[in-house]
Amino acid sequence: MVNLSDIRAANQRIQKYVHRTPLLSSSSLNADTGARLAFKCENFQRTGAFKARGAFNAVFSLVDQQATRGVVTSSSGNQAAALALAGRTRGIPVYVAMPKIALQSKVAAVRRYGGEITWVEGTEKVPTAEEYDAAVAAIQAKTQANAVHPYNDPRTIAGQGTCALEFAEEQPRLEMVLAPVGGGGLLAGTCVAAKELNPKIKVIGCEPEMANDAQRSLRSGRILTQSQPQTIADGLRTSLGYLTFPIIQHYCDDVVTVSEKAIVSAMRLAWEILKIIIEPSSAVALAAVLEAKVEVSGRCVGIILSGGNVDVDHLPWIPEHRG
Predict the structure, then answer these.
(1) Does residue 2 carry a pLDDT above 90?
(2) How far apart are CA 293 and CA 257, in angstroms?
(3) What band does 320 get if pLDDT is binned at 50, 70 and 90?
């Protein structure tokens, strides 16, 4: 399992490559919720999402002989762009297996950073984990590139944990942290950093009702995979990994789910009150507060806003784009 020492080492490794993202607060949101809310703005991170942390840690963990072969990953967008940027920074090739339904803005980012895309042909609209893995294996067979899993990789988990490490340093009175959960890399890293720094901090995972595998898995005691998730939060359609699940099972206090309506409302509220754009996957943690899925009154609560890569031509509260 990843530990706090791994996260501290990752922090040292990547700090010159990633941003130390700011914290925002809102007196009006505090008054509405009765809590002291602090928002960790990973939408201001390089490539627009927390994924840069794990990607840079993985790429710069490689010894030179490994690095020359490049890296390969699978992703619907944010991981792909982050790894492409990290690879370009180190001067090595990056190969990405992406689904054809990926947002064009995210595809453009991967190409802008020099990533080489291979399209994944899924039997369903959203490719399965097995289909992604098969695509990565095929790329590896041709290139001998080093696989960097988007969440089920100790280097990725440790890198993502640096977000919570910063959070705790900047907000020492933190009592609770809310983080989105898809494959579990961010939540697992958050759990390790927060709980090993202060076991009294409650860590809550947040996911869409329409993609609730993490909640079901935590309550059943075993990994239950997604089955055709129908959610606007495209980054949270993946299932937990065999590395992320036991960490979450060991440390996480709960996983709550939110409605699609609340996700959209949270996106809009962030724009109207915090004056920032966040993507649907990022909005689930704020949505959990809006739907009162977590008791926050009287507490100092940290909310990780995981990314801001949105197709601004198709904002979900514009009537013609709903549904």
Answers:
(1) yes
(2) 8
(3) low
Tens-digit pLDDT profile for residues 192-231: 999 999 999 999 999 999 999 999 999 999 999 887 788 9
Compute the distance between CA of residue 51 and CA of residue 42 in angstroms, rounded to an integer: 9
Asked whether the beta carbons of 195 and 251 are under 8 A apart, the reply is yes
| Phi-psi label, residue 321: left if phi above 0, alpha if psi -120 to 50, beta otherwise | alpha
Look at residues 259, 283, 261 and name the one whose alpha carbon lies nearest to residue 271. 283
What integer pLDDT is reported at residue 318 of this predicted model?
A: 73
The Cα 136–Cα 72 span in angstroms is 7
Instruction: Tell the residue number behind the tokens 């009294």, with chain if given.
Output: 200
Q: Which domains does the chain have, with CATH numbers?
A: 4-49+157-321 (3.40.50.1100), 52-147 (3.40.50.1100)
Dihedrals φ, ψ of 300, to 5°? -90, 110
For the stretch 106-129, pLDDT in tens is 888 899 999 999 999 766 667 787
Please give the C-alpha separations between residue 194 and each of 34, 111, 232, 310, in angstroms, as whole numbers.
23, 35, 28, 29
- What DSSP designation does 227 have? -
